[in-house]
Structure formats: C-alpha cells, structure tokens
Amino acid sequence: MGEEGRSCPLAYRYSQADLCWQVSESSADVLYVIGGLYGNVLALDENERMAREEERQGRRVQLVFNGDFNWFNASDELFGAINERVLEHTVSLGNVEYELAHPSPGTGCGCAYPEFVDQGVVERSNRIIERLQNVASSHPDIRQRLGDLPRYRCLMFGGLKILVLHGDPESLAGWGLAHEAFAEGNEAGLAEWFKSTGADAMVCTHTCLPVLWSGLVAKQARVVVNNGSAGMGNLQNDPRGLITRIGASGPSVEPVATLERRGLHFSLMPVAFDHQAWMDRFDALWPTGSDAEVSYRNRLFNGTSLAAGDVVFPSGF
Ligand SMILES: [Fe+2]
Q1: How many A from CA of 204 to the centre of ligand 1?
Q2: Per DSSP, what are the bridge partners of residue 24?
Q3: Centre of ligand 1 from the C-alpha of residue 22, in Å
Q4: Is the model's pLDDT at 315 over the cut of 90?
Q5: Rounded to the nearest whole angstrom, what is the distance from the C-alpha of residue 105 to the centroid of ligand 1?
Q6: Radius of gyration (Cα) for the chain, nearest Å?
Q7: pTM of whole model > 0.70?
Q8: How confident is the model at residue 230, as a pLDDT?
Q9: How confident is the model at residue 1 (pLDDT cuts 50, 70, 90)?
Q10: Per the domain annotation, does 2 fall within a domain?
Q11: Are 62 and 28 in contact (CB under 8 A)?
C-alpha cells in the first residue's frame, strides 16, 4: 500500500479519543452536511437555494462542508469561486484540500484507494490532483485558508454529539465507513468507534457511495450517515447529488432515505442541481479523453448501480 494514491499519509491519522474532545454548540435548527461537492458550482447553488427555502419556512440552516469541495474546478475562476463561497461556512478538510494546502510527494490524490478500486482510476486521480495543485499555486491566500482548516469537527446539536468526519474515525482518508464496509459487515468495528469517540452520530463522505446506518451501542441508538457525493450522482439513473440533513423536524421535500433517532431526523437529501449547466462547465474543463472525463463523466450522467433501498443498513429493515 505504498503506491501513489493508495497510501494514507501519517498526517491523515488521528486519535479517536480526540475527535469529540472539543465540542462546539450549534444553534441552528437544521444541519446540512455537504461532502464531496467536487467543484460542482451548480450543486453549491442548489444547496444554498435549499437552505434559503428552509429559512423561508422558519428554520435556520448551518451549512457544514466536510471536505472534497474541490476536484473538477480546475480553472482560476472556478477554483476561486468555489473556495470563497464554501469558506464562508463551517468547513473541515478532505484529502483533496489537504493535498492542495500541503502537497506531499508520493501521496497523489491522498484517496487511500483500496484494492477493489481499479489502478486506472487511481492514476487518473493522481493526475487530476496535479492539475488542481497547479491552479491552487496561483491562489496562495486560499491555500493558506485551506491549510488552517481542522480535519474533523464535533458539533453539539439537538443534545447529541454529531461527529463530522471526512473518511472514518482513524483517518481523514479512511474507508471504514464506506458503503462497501457496511455491505461486508462492520458492526463490531462501529461499536468500538462509537465507544472510543463518545459520538452519538458520525457524518462522513470521501468514499463516494451513500450509507444510512443505525444501531444500538451501549444501549443508545447511534447513526452513521455517509452522503456519498453532493456534486455527482449517487443512485442508478439519477444524476442528483446527495447531502446529509439533520434536524429536529423532518425535511419538507422527499428524502432518498431517512430515519428518526433520539429526537433527530437524519436524512439523505437529493441535490437536484442544473445538470445541463454543470455538464457544460465540466465538458469545457475536461474534454473527451481527459482524466476526469474518463473516470467520471458516465457517473455524472447515469449515477451508480445503487437503488435507494441499497443505502440503508442494516438492510432488510
Ligand atoms: Fe476524499
């Protein structure tokens, strides 16, 4: 696991006991946790519109970005626009932002891709981050601000500790909360992570497929939500992004999946951004044969192979 794009830099690792050591109180009525925007400025427009609609209905929304808001935005204009807008909100790092702020030789994109991810995907991702690092080099102010971001946050919201991560409780780029990990069965590991962090819910992204899990740990209901990607399709024949919404009241539009635990509604909400407008921007930056076009264009149009029912764990309930 020492090859570029498959390794996990030491700086990505953290102590589980530290994750909820510092807790900040949220006074909002609703949290939107937005992971994996991947430079999709139209999805950002839609997230902001969704928040305004909630506010029109009397609910204050806190936008929380938990990393990888950069990726396809490989132009000076789009790089500046995405970062200036996102950094207005509550933000923590993804591996992409870490590698923009602190390019580390031999790390590539920092995704720590596991064995089941094709080598071609890994190599193209390494070239995408190189291109983005070149753009970022013209924006030292933004790089500085990215470098100052924390790697995780713990929010006290609705009386629960909501641990906001990028990867998993061991690493910024960990795959322990990936859809694939839940599909294989990771209950024992999850129980340990909830005990060692003291979190009531973990909200993550990074691995690009959505998960909504709930279970009992130490006689208390706990929740994991992985939003997949806010800026790319997540389900079959569905190009909409997904974000995590948490609130004492449920969503007023149809969620992809939702559950209520300990007085809070945890929902995966679709982000129905202007798809044609985004594809026009994407195609201009990543023409046919380019690394992002080869790796992602099909997903941007067609989503993944998952049905909505496939994202809920334990399955069968
Ligand atoms: Fe990531």
Answers
A1: 10
A2: 155
A3: 23
A4: no
A5: 18
A6: 18
A7: yes
A8: 98
A9: very low
A10: no
A11: yes
- Cα of 249 vs centre of ligand 1, distance in Å, is 30
**Interval between CA 207 and ligand 1 midpoint (Å):** 6
Q: Does 307 fall in a domain?
A: yes
What spacing in Å lies between the alpha carbon of 102 and ligand 1's midpoint? 15
Domains of the chain: total: 1
**Residue 187, domain member (yes or no):** yes
| Distance, C-alpha 68 to centroid of its chain | 6
Question: Where do the H-state alpha helices sit in the chain?
Answer: 41-56, 76-86, 95-101, 119-136, 140-147, 179-184, 187-197, 275-285, 291-302
213 within some domain: yes
Give the domain extent around 283: 16-72+151-313
C-alpha 237/C-alpha 250 separation (Å) is 26
Expressed in angstroms and rounded, the spacing between residue 315 Cα and the centre of ligand 1 is: 25
Q: Amino acid identity of 283?
A: D
Q: How far is the CA of 167 from the centre of ligand 1 (A)?
A: 7
Which CATH number belongs to the domain containing residue 37 in this structure?
3.60.21
